[in-house]
Specification:
about 350 residues, alpha/beta, globular
Length: about 350
C-alpha cells in the first residue's frame, strides 16, 4: 500500500479508536445530571439502572396490560378493602400503583414517584388524604416515605396540597408543569421536586405556530432553562427534573439540569451515541444572572395561567388524559374482580 493509503487507514483507525474510548452520551450526561427512568416496566428499569424512576397512570396502565405483571394485579385485587365494589376497585387501584412502586424501589437506589389520582387535581383535602394513604400502603410493604415522591398535578389546589404535605414530611413531585409561574408557586410551597414538561410544550407550539424548532430554541427547553436559572439564582431548593422528551437532542439541550426523567427508548439511543455532550445549565452561571424575583399568590397564578394558552390547555389536557387512564385501569380491575 502507498504512504497515502497508510495515512488514510491510520487516520480512520484513530477516529474509530477515539470513538470507542469516548464515553457514551448517557455516561457524559450522568456526570452532571441525575438520570431517572420514565417507565413502569420493571425489566426496562432493571436493564437501564437509573438513579430514580417515575410512574404515572398511563405507564401503569401500559404495564398492567402485560401478562408478566398479572401476579401484581392479582395480589392488589386479593388485598383490596372496601364496603362496596367501587370502594374495592379504588383501593385495588391504589394498591396496584404501590405494588409497582415497591418493586421499583428494589431496583433503583433513589426516589420512586407515584401519582395521586388525577381526578383529585382540584381537591386539596382529597389529594392530602390520598397521599397519606399511598404512604401508608408503602409502609405496609416496608418502604419508608423518604423513598417516595407523591406526584401531584401543578394546579393551584395541587400546589396548596403539596405545601401542607411537605410540612407533614411527605415529599412531592409536582407534575404537569408547563409555566414559569407554576414553577415559582411550587418553589414557594417548598415542593421537593418539579417535573416541567418539555416535549408537550414543543408539541403545542409546533401545532399552533406551524413551525419547526432547533433544540436550543425549543420552547420546552427554554421553559426549563428559565425555571432552572431562576431557582438557582434565588436559592430555591426544589429539584428541577425535566420530563416528557421527544428526542435525544431535546434531552441533551438540558445537560446540567438537576435531574431528567427519560423514556427507556431514548436512554437506549443515548447508550449507542458517542457525540460530545456540552453542559448547558450551571448553577454558578445562574447565580450571576440579572433576574427579577417574583411572588405568586392565587390571583397572580390564575392570571398568568389565563394569559398562557399553551399552559392552560396542556394542564387541562394532561389532567383529563391521566384521569381517563385511571378510569381504564379501574375498568380492567373491575372486570377482573367480577370474574
Amino acid at each position: 500500500p502507498s504512504t497515502a493509503q497508510l495515512g488514510g487507514w491510520s487516520r480512520e483507525y484513530s477516529q474509530q479508536h477515539l470513538q470507542a474510548n469516548m464515553p457514551t452520551c448517557r455516561e457524559q450526561l450522568a456526570k452532571v445530571t441525575k438520570i431517572v427512568a420514565d417507565t413502569g416496566d420493571l425489566d426496562s428499569i432493571r436493564s437501564l439502572q437509573p438513579e430514580d424512576a417515575t410512574t404515572n397512570p398511563s405507564l401503569i396502565l401500559a404495564a398492567v396490560s402485560d401478562p408478566k405483571y398479572s401476579a401484581l394485579v392479582d395480589e392488589a385485587i386479593k388485598n383490596a378493602k372496601g364496603a362496596t365494589l367501587e370502594e374495592k376497585v379504588s383501593d385495588a387501584t391504589d394498591r396496584l400503583a404501590v405494588a409497582f412502586g415497591t418493586e421499583i424501589t428494589k431496583i433503583v437506589p433513589g426516589y420512586v414517584s407515584t401519582e395521586v389520582d388525577a381526578r383529585l387535581s382540584f381537591d386539596v383535602q382529597g389529594t392530602i388524604a390520598k397521599a397519606h394513604k399511598t404512604i401508608a400502603l408503602y409502609a405496609e410493604k416496608g418502604v419508608p416515605k423518604e423513598r417516595i415522591l407523591i406526584k401531584i398535578a401543578s394546579t393551584w389546589e395541587g400546589i396548596q396540597a403539596a405545601q401542607i404535605l411537605e410540612q407533614q414530611g411527605v415529599k412531592c413531585n409536582m407534575t404537569l408543569l408547563f409555566n414559569f409561574y407554576q414553577a415559582v408557586a411550587c418553589a414557594q410551597a417548598k415542593a421537593t421536586l418539579i417535573s416541567p414538561f418539555v416535549g408537550r410544550i414543543l408539541d403545542w407550539y409546533k401545532a399552533n405556530e406551524k413551525k419547526e424548532y432547533s433544540h436550543d430554541e425549543d420552547p420546552g427547553v427554554l421553559s426549563v432553562k428559565k425555571i432552572f436559572n431562576y431557582y438557582k439564582k434565588f436559592g430555591h431548593e426544589t429539584i428541577v427534573m425535566g420530563a416528557s422528551f421527544r428526542s435525544v437532542g431535546e434531552v441533551l439541550a438540558l445537560t446540567g439540569c438537576d435531574r431528567l426523567t427519560i423514556s427507556p427508548a431514548l436512554l437506549q439511543e443515548m447508550d449507542k451515541m458517542n457525540d460530545e455532550v456540552p453542559v448547558k445549565l450551571q448553577s454558578s452561571a445562574a447565580k450571576t444572572m440579572d433576574l427579577q424575583q417574583v411572588f405568586v399568590d392565587e390571583k397572580k397564578f390564575r392570571w398568568e395561567m389565563n394569559q398562557d394558552a399553551m399552559a392552560t390547555e396542556k394542564l387541562a389536557e394532561g389532567v383529563r388524559k391521566f384521569a381517563a387512564d385511571i378510569n381504564k385501569l379501574e375498568a380492567i380491575i373491575r372486570e377482573k374482580m367480577g370474574k
